[in-house]
Amino acid sequence: MHIELGPCLLEQRLAERGMSKEKLAAELRIRAERIGDFISDKRVMPLRTAIAIADIVACDVRDLYELRSLKQREESLQP
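The chain above was modelled as a monomer; its predicted structure follows.
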């Protein structure tokens, strides 16, 4: 089955943990702007970064993005 990434769910995961993007960025040793880019879907998280984020916020990597199958996408485009 073909899967594509939907919107980033990092903002929701951070809110669930009561963590700011600045704190996450500090733990990852990256700029908070990069976290903001992930949240706003300007950038897709590299796999290593996604794994590190999932470890920090205690979630599964798959919980960082809405995942859509190609079939779901095609159905949503039909009138």
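Residues 47-57 form the longest helix (11 residues).
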